[in-house]
Amino acid sequence: MDPARIAIIVGMGLVTYLIRAVPQLFFAGRSFPEAFERYLRYLSYALIASIVSTTLFLAGRRFEAAAAPHRALALAVAVLVASRTGQPLLGMLVGTLLAQTLPWLSAAW
Known about the structure:
Elements: H1 3-26, H2 34-57, E1 58-59, E2 62-63, H3 68-85, H4 88-108
Antiparallel strand pairs: 1-2
């Protein structure tokens, strides 16, 4: 993977973390309204999903049409596993494993 792409992913991950952490650092001891807390919780997941989906389907500046069905299936399974188990990291690991093995399996058939 391109080092610039890795730097972008890490940078956006840090921004995602800061979006959730900074308000809690500045407003320690105060309770947030439930709607705001829920907004912050889902905002971080949405930002991570945008990073992953962009990286998953693009190679440089072009869309990888041949790999898109395998990667879309891996993404769908990852989201399903994460939502069913409540463990996003497990979903990411399953999705990564599928994204790496599905092209290999389809080439073997």
